[in-house]
């Protein structure tokens, strides 16, 4: 009788013992990837590899990135003991400038770290620098023309062509002093604004097409407040 009781007890306890001993362990080969220096508009692809160094299945609940500019694709949500998993990432550098760090979060059943962080970092440089990046005409006077200048500098490694200059507001006129930029050279965009009577604000863009695959279009915002004439003046 006692023998049968001990046998039943052992059968009941075995799953609990096995569960307590086995656990997954997420180990990343290199959690920090540096892409160095790239031009704005380029995309960076990198695959992070990790291993389940534990003795129970590793379950990846979800993958999340710190911003929509970075996509992450998981090879599998279940990684067996001793098996390798991958996270394929793509970082879109459009609209970024300077040093950047993006984080990918892996949520798993690893009892020692439920959230594992992966990093993509580097420096994003504009192939064509705009200085200033936007133009504030400030105190404009109806019927009077005000001028501003924006310098374009080729920071890339090949000659670039400028073409198809346009403005999006009838109060704006613009011209560029060169139609091609050698490496390291600059050109100026001369912008003239002439607000109309009764106009309170001026807003528009100067748009220039380029031969750059990374920056095919330059958009220079132009805005300003228009002085309102006082009654009797």
Automatic annotation (TrEMBL):
Gene3D superfamilies: Immunoglobulins (2.60.40.10)
Segments traversing the membrane: none
Protein name, UniProt field: DUF1573 domain-containing protein
Domain of life: Bacteria
């Amino acid at each position: 009788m006692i023998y049968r009781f001990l046998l039943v007890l052992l059968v009941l306890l075995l799953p609990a013992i096995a569960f307590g001993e086995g656990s997954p362990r997420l180990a990343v080969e290199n959690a920090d990837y540096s892409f160095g220096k790239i031009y704005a508009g380029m995309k960076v692809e990198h695959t992070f590899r990790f291993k389940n160094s534990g003795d129970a299945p590793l379950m990846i609940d979800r993958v999340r990135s710190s911003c929509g500019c970075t996509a992450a694709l998981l090879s599998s949500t279940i990684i067996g003991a001793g098996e390798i998993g991958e996270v394929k990432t793509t970082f879109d550098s459009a609209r970024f400038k300077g040093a950047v760090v993006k984080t990918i979060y892996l949520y798993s059943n690893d009892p020692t770290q439920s959230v594992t962080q992966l990093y993509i970092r580097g420096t994003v440089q504009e192939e064509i620098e705009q200085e200033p990046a936007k133009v504030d005409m400030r105190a404009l006077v109806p019927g009077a023309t005000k001028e501003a200048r924006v310098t374009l500098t080729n920071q890339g490694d090949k000659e670039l062509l400028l073409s198809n200059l346009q403005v999006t507001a009838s109060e704006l006129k613009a011209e560029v002093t060169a139609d091609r930029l050698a490496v390291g050279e600059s050109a100026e965009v001369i912008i003239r604004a002439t607000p109309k009577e009764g106009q309170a604000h001026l807003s528009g863009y100067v748009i220039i097409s380029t031969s750059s695959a990374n920056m095919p279009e330059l958009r220079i915002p132009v805005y300003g407040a228009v002085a309102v004439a006082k009654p009797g003046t």
